[in-house]
Amino acid sequence: MLDDAGLQALREAARLSPDNLPLRRHLAEQLLTKGYLADAEAEFRAALLLAPKDPDISAGLAEAFVRQSAHGAALSALEPFLASPGYPPRMGVLAARALLGEGDFGRAAYRYHEAISRDASVADPELAARLTTPVAPSVPAAPAPSATTPADAPSGAEVERSKVTFADVAGMEAVKEALRVKLLLPLQQPELFAAYGKRAGGGVLMYGPPGAGKTHLARAAAGELGAAFVNVGLSDILDMYVGSSERNLRAMFDLARRNRPCVLFFDEVDALAARRSDMRQAHTRQLVNQFLAELDGVDQDANEGVLVLAATNAPWYIDVAFRRPGRFDQLVFVPPPDASARAAILRLLCRDKPLAEMDFDAVARVTDHFVGADLKGVVDRAVEVKLQQSISAGRPIPMNTHDLLAIAQNTRPTAVREWLATARNYVLHANESGAWDELMPWIKGKR
Ligand code: ADP
């Protein structure tokens, strides 16, 4: 029972006109502000039924969850929004709180810094302190950072031997060519490069919508080269102990140096290489400085045979210092696949499945704005359906065009439209250097 007369009146009004969205939203927000969390949750849920995609209502619901320590539920409410790069910064901070609640420090730090770099007004000093203060549970305030640092090296990344090559990447001829020239030729034909006084080196920054195949391309580049592959995710680097993230980063470079030739791949690199001017924490600036120093190498040969690739959905957040020669001096746009690339991706994804007649072009035509990851989802689901049917029939039933079409027509592509809209905001009037030339035709709607 609410003991607030104003809220009681609001609730009564909402009961009388249940379809009045502004009213219900106002009631939910008031409940949240006044700390009636379970009631707020119920009201936000009801409002969400009226406006299922409303970001403010979803954020309100997520906040109600976070404040009740229902972290998983909060993340589920936020997830559909977080997938597209331009999500409201308030949601990033809520996600950070939920992730921290679940003990996922690395992602929490990433979400938080990403959010406040776009909108400083959502900063939450209390949360920021929990994300940066060295809090060692069993070690009281220690004199030197090293004493508060767990001794173990980063756990995640390992050295892989990639079995995929460029033959496993459908379409994307321009991207493959750029990687070939930058990474493969200097290693395969060092004499030629030496003759022109050019050294192998410098990294490539791939950018584009999520799921378009950046990780897949990096792995394929390693396979193409016969090089080792080290796939570095944020959780391999970001650590709450002061100085630890820098140490983790160095350990990743050292791992690659010990395994040359090696492709060292950084996913979500915007979190490690963000513009220093946006940062309030000296701590995060140190990580960026460390990253630059590792890319430069202590001496000329330090990174010989180490090919650094990085991927981001948000290249505009990256500090320009990373784009200097010898660092990520090449920017490569990994575009959403066009119809013929989609047909090629589908063909690849289906190549070892039992198939009846299959018109990949027809499926490609109905999957406008689908990226590789979306197409993989369609094929995976069609395979599940076919498997069920085969089990019931007691014999294998091959997949046909209709199976893929049926799933594709009921699937929404993830984030390409939203991504292009966000990209447009960032780059349309900021292309003096020509850095975004490859992207321009897409955001001007000519592709
Ligand atoms: P990103 O790193 O850009 O978010 P991923 O590389 O993780 O995207 O792509 C997701 C999945 O989609 C890959 O594992 C791969 O199976 C599939 N995929 C994407 N692009 C292609 C492509 N051009 N050819 C074949 N498969 C692709």
Helix share bin: 40-55%
Could you say what the CATH topology of the largest domain is called? Rossmann fold
Q: Can you give the mean pLDDT?
A: 84
The N- to C-terminal Cα distance equals: 57 Å
Low-confidence stretches: 133-154
By secondary-structure content and strand pairing, the structural class works out as alpha/beta
Brief summary:
This protein is an alpha/beta fold. The chain is 52% helix and 6% strand. The chain has a six-stranded mixed sheet, with helices on both faces.
Which helices and strands appear, and what pairs or packs with what?
Layout: H1 5-16, H2 21-33, H3 37-50, H4 55-67, H5 71-82, H6 89-101, H7 105-118, H8 125-132, E1 159-161, H9 173-188, H10 190-195, E2 204-207, H11 214-225, E3 228-232, H12 234-237, H13 244-258, E4 262-266, H14 282-296, E5 306-312, E6 330-333, H15 339-349, H16 360-365, H17 372-393, H18 401-409, H19 416-427, H20 440-443
Parallel strand pairs: 2-5, 2-6, 3-4, 4-5
Antiparallel strand pairs: 1-3
Helix pairs in contact: 1-2, 2-3, 2-4, 3-4, 4-5, 4-6, 5-6, 6-7, 9-11, 13-14, 15-17, 17-18
The structure holds adenosine-5'-diphosphate.
Adenosine-5'-diphosphate binds next to helix 11, helix 15 and helix 17.
